[in-house]
């Protein structure tokens, strides 16, 4: 709509404080931001330069088919020409057995520079100065990075028994802790709060150096009363020469949402204190480079001055001069100076944190300071050593908290809460009572107004997960203020190495459906500018709309409410997007073609969210994901199209992330879940299909195919290739191919079963959940001519004229999502080198309907909306939805790659 129509439909007067802005001033475009240099043939840092803290790094790198043999040695050449110690391992293979993706790790402390490269070499890579050593004994595993030694029990109450440096134990007894409450109703007479702690049941050594070692711990959390719940997987990452340890903790919620209300979840450990009270230090990193730094026994600001050198030493975190060098009248009165034992930083929302301290339990807390968004890093220890620790995405995953207790005793206790005990108990109950929707007919009728697919018992969080990443740095001294800030930066935004976009493109990974940005013509520039604008817009919306929180961070909203000037956060299926229509693919392809850090971080946060929260990891719905809803688990449509590996494999291959790899493993056989949950169970007019399960040829098959393809790539196991080939032959051998709509599926044999001939069945959703992208890879990797023919037929006909459809499949089915499907037309045009078809594709893409909103005139209106119409000032594009952005973005990217010369 234009501005006049918008104001009229929204029921607001033209005098309201709404201002129209054109593209450049409404939101800055990515093209106007200086991007880090990405040189072909080289690797670089995502944000442009190597972090000041060099803590050890892991990344992924692609290779062209036939380029790298599995036994080929690799070496890393830094920007100054030095050969750097490197640990490499394959993460995917091409059909010919050559390596498709590798992951690499480098030691801590090495300087790679701005541009560096991995190349084929002869013989092993040089050994690191301090190789990681893993020693396995009967009851413990010891890991030595060269600077720090860790003792990890194979079973029991502690994750890490001791962390030692220079022969002395600095920290010990690391464990996960929590609180659970059995009642949250304010009218309840009493509620009981129980504490729980992690229990390790199994430890697996996944890697043992020499550059990187990884230990995988599996266990449960044990409540005081003996109940076991919240199964967890935790990985410990050790790098050679590192004084830091990375911890990745994932748990699955398996409680009763009516009586198991989490009051706190955290990582706790004890720090040995050997310094005098005035030589001990507590640090909290605030926003940007802000730092709160004090001592349990402060010696500044006293009525008597101990001396400038003494004060300067404490402020800097250094050991103070001997007492006999202090000014008279201070040292012999230190016992009158209070000892502050306890410190807390709490961030209960995305927009404010507070720091407080007290002398001891039973006495008042004193407010120390406040701020906006804390970095989530802290230090406790003394001039002779301590622990700097922190949590990634701290304020984004609120409510969070850092507690330091007993800083004035021989052992301090530190807890990094990833659910703050000062926050209200965690609520995962379904948000309404069903509204009388008892039958499928009632549920389908309700769907017509709120877009929510409800069914009793389906809106459960039982089986969803969340992952939190921590860093523990075992230091030999209190870090300087600048070093503390550097560590805080590294914890909140870990350094990430990436390959140049042109190098990824030429390897042929991910199906070749993208190209590098090209503004060589006015038309291409117009498309590129909108692609860049869309990314900036969503980056801005995340912050302005406060899309943060423990269960929410990483996701975006589905549809906008023009009248309230908010996204429809409270309306059924219009709220959280949950990967609907593939925003994940849009963001990852955007990064591949640009190398842009902003698109990477948006895509990474989305993957880290949806791989955990939007998918079930145990229980009845295991292997399935949940359609969009007010709550991420709220919709009764539990589907393969959300849990598909198609959305997660980018993150795994680009980063080597093990948690993402776990989830890719979980969904390999997710198709079996269709036996437990039929996505079409509410439809009364379903035609029968052979076999025990129904598999829709679009959303279901595309998801299963991506799961099997990823498993085949990662393992080289031929059984997955055979599953793919058999299914592709079944579809390709059917007279209707992709127009058959629904096939049968046998979960035992993993075979598709051809349905009887019937009228063509076409869904506008079949191709918009990764089928286009996965089919491009299947056709690239597997020679099944009949499948390719069937797919190209579908691509040509979907947007064809009614006459062409009638002649080909017997009916003129309606065309929906015409602009997104233009990329199917483009694919067929590129495969057949058909210029006329390419021109048709561009015409479909440019149509000013639905997704193809013209980027001209008032249709590009972007509004600044201010009070009193909204709570906070926001920028809005009232005509845009996430469906629009995702599918328009994918169509634009793929059309430019496939038929750019025909524009």
TrEMBL record:
Segments forming domain PcRGLX/YetA-like central beta-sandwich: 132-483
Short name of one Pfam family: PcRGLX_3rd
Domain PcRGLX/YetA-like N-terminal RIFT barrel: from-to ranges: 41-120
Organism in which the protein naturally occurs: Gilvimarinus gilvus
Name by which UniProt lists this protein: Tat pathway signal sequence domain protein
Domain of life: Bacteria
Residues covered by the PcRGLX/YetA-like C-terminal alpha/alpha toroid domain: 494-902
């Amino acid at each position: 709509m234009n501005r006049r129509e918008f104001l009229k439909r929204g029921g607001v007067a033209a005098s309201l404080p709404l201002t129209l802005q054109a593209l450049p001033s409404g939101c800055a475009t990515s093209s106007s931001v200086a991007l880090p240099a990405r040189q072909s043939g080289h690797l670089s840092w995502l944000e442009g330069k190597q972090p000041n803290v060099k803590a050890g790094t892991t990344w992924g790198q692609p290779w062209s088919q036939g380029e790298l043999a599995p036994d080929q040695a690799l070496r890393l050449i830094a920007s100054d020409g030095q050969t750097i110690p490197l640990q490499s391992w394959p993460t995917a293979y091409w059909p010919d057995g050559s390596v498709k993706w590798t992951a690499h790790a480098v030691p801590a402390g090495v300087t790679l520079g701005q541009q560096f490269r991995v190349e084929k070499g002869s013989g092993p890579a040089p050994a690191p100065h301090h190789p990681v050593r893993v020693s396995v004994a009967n009851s413990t595993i010891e890991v030595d990075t060269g600077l720090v030694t860790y003792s990890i029990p194979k079973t029991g109450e502690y994750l890490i028994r001791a962390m030692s440096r220079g022969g002395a134990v600095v920290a010990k007894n690391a464990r996960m802790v929590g609180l659970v409450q059995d009642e949250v109703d304010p009218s309840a007479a009493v509620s009981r709060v129980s504490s729980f702690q992690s229990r390790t049941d199994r430890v697996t050594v996944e890697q043992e150096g020499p550059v990187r070692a990884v230990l995988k711990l599996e266990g449960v959390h044990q409540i005081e009363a003996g109940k076991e719940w919240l199964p967890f997987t935790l990985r410990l990452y050790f790098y050679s020469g590192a004084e830091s340890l990375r911890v990745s903790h994932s748990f699955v919620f398996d409680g009763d949402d009516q009586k198991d209300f989490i009051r706190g979840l955290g990582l706790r450990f004890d720090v040995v204190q050997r310094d005098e009270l005035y030589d001990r230090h507590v640090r909290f990193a605030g926003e940007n480079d802000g730092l709160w730094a004090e001592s349990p026994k402060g010696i500044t600001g006293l009525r008597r001055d101990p001396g400038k050198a003494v004060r300067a030493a404490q402020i800097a975190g250094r050991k103070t001069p001997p007492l006999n060098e202090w000014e008279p009248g201070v040292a012999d009165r230190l016992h009158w100076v209070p000892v502050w034992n306890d410190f807390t930083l709490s961030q209960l929302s995305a927009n404010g944190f507070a720091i407080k301290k007290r002398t001891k339990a039973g006495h008042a807390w004193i407010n120390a300071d406040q701020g906006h968004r804390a970095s989530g890093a802290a230090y406790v220890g003394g001039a002779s050593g301590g622990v700097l620790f922190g949590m990634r995405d701290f304020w984004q995953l609120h409510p969070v908290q850092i507690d330091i207790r007993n800083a004035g005793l021989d052992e301090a206790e530190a807890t990094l809460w990833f659910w703050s005990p000062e926050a209200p108990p965690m609520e995962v109950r379904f948000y309404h009572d069903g509204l009388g929707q008892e039958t499928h007919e009632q549920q389908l009728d309700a769907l017509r107004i709120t877009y929510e697919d409800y069914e009793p018992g389906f809106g459960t969080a039982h089986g969803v997960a969340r992952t939190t990443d921590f860093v523990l740095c075992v230091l030999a001294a209190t870090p300087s203020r600048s070093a503390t800030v550097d560590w805080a930066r590294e914890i909140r935004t870990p350094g990430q190495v990436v390959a140049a976009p042109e190098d990824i493109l030429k390897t042929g990974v991910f199906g070749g459906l993208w190209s590098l940005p090209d503004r060589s013509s006015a038309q291409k520039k117009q498309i590129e500018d909108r692609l860049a604008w869309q990314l900036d817009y969503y980056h801005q919306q995340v912050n302005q709309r406060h899309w943060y929180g423990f269960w929410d961070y990483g996701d975006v909203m589905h549809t906008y409410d023009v009248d309230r000037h908010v996204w429809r956060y409270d309306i059924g299926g219009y709220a959280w997007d949950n990967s609907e229509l593939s925003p994940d693919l849009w963001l990852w392809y955007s990064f591949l073609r640009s190398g842009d850090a902003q698109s990477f971080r948006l895509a990474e946060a989305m993957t880290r969210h949806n791989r955990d929260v939007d998918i079930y990891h145990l229980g009845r719905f295991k292997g399935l994901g949940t359609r969009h809803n007010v709550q991420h688990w709220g919709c009764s449509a539990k589907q393969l199209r959300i849990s598909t590996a198609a959305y997660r494999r980018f993150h795994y291959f680009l980063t080597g992330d093990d948690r993402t790899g776990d989830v890719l493993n979980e969904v390999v056989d997710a198709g079996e879940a269709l036996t437990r949950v039929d996505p079409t169970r509410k439809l009364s007019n379903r035609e029968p299909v052979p076999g025990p399960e129904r598999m829709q040829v679009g959303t279901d098959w595309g998801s299963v195919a991506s799961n099997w393809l990823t498993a085949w790539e990662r393992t080289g196991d031929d059984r997955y290739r055979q599953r793919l080939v058999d299914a592709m032959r079944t579809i390709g051998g059917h007279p209707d191919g992709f127009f058959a709509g629904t096939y049968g599926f046998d979960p035992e044999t993993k075979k598709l079963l051809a349905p009887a001939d019937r009228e063509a069945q076409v869904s506008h959703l079949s191709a918009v959940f990764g089928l286009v992208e996965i089919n491009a890879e299947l056709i690239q990797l597997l020679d099944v001519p009949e499948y390719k023919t069937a797919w190209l037929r579908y691509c040509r006909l979907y947007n064809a004229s009614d006459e062409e459809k009638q002649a080909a499949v017997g009916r003129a089915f309606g065309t929906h999502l015409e602009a997104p499907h233009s990329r199917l037309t483009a694919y067929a045009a590129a495969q057949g080198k058909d210029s006329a078809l390419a021109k048709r594709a561009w015409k479909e893409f440019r149509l000013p309907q639905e997704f193809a909103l013209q980027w001209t005139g008032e249709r590009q209106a972007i509004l600044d909306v201010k009070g009193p119409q909204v709570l906070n000032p926001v920028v809005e594009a009232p005509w845009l939805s996430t469906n629009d952005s995702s599918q328009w973005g994918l169509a634009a990217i793929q059309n430019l790659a496939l038929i750019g010369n025909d524009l």
